[in-house]
Design goal:
Blueprint lengths: L1 E2 L2 E2 L2 H8 L8 E8 L3 E9 L8 H10 L10 E5 L12 H16 L2 H16 L18 H13 L2 E2 L2 H6 L3 H10 L1 E2 L2 H4 L2
Parallel strand pairs: 4-5
Antiparallel strand pairs: 1-2, 3-4, 6-7
Helix pairs in contact: 4-7
Length: 191
């Protein structure tokens, strides 16, 4: 996987994840990504009722000293592995599954804005240690960084005023602001 110019071996991530008590089967694949080149997708075989959230998986990997740039961008639970004609796990089919879901969310401007916020936060702050309701200023985010986010959202067609972001500094509130934000045509927003 080539994520933002960094080479990542899926086996390294898989080996660590298999040490988690709630994971019996796992596959890690790269999926195309406009911002990163490739994003990291983790597939976990459903074997019990417990489904770990992405932030739980990222936190677990961080605790095992996996470098931050190797932390996954998405997680998907799957009932059975898709197999090739030779009976091997079909990684290409896994990529198709996650890409279809990713495209559905990123096809809307507001969906894309939420993805931008998630990725931006994980680059600025250790995203695996952020809960949706956490005050991001208390987690170390500066007002200048929040102003940069406002500009980044505007370039992508979402108008969320800096003042609103600063008075509601949590991922949960930001997503709510995105849901109610004004949308500009992207070609107008880039002017």
């Amino acid at each position: 996987i080539n994520r933002a110019g960094e080479k990542i071996t899926p086996l390294e991530i898989e080996d660590i994840l298999l040490t988690h008590k709630d994971i019996d089967g796992v596959q890690v694949v790269g999926i195309p990504d406009e911002l990163l080149g490739e994003a990291i997708a983790v597939f976990v075989l459903k074997t019990n009722e417990k489904e770990l959230k992405l932030d739980e998986i990222r936190h677990f990997l961080s605790d095992k000293n996996l470098a931050e740039f190797k932390l996954p961008d998405s997680v998907k639970y799957i009932d059975d592995w898709p197999l090739t004609a030779l009976g091997k796990i079909d990684r290409n089919k896994l990529r198709e599954i996650i890409w279809e879901e990713f495209e559905v969310e990123s096809n809307t401007i507001k969906g894309k804005a939420k993805i931008i916020i998630e990725r931006w936060l994980s680059d600025i702050i250790d995203g695996s240690k952020i809960d949706a309701s956490d005050n991001l200023i208390e987690k170390g985010l500066s007002s200048i960084q929040i102003m940069q986010l406002s500009g980044k959202l505007k370039k992508n067609g979402i108008i969320v005023p800096f003042a609103k972001l600063i008075e509601n500094p949590s991922k949960e509130k930001w997503f709510s602001l995105v849901d109610t934000a004004k949308i500009k045509e992207v070609n107008q927003a880039k002017k």
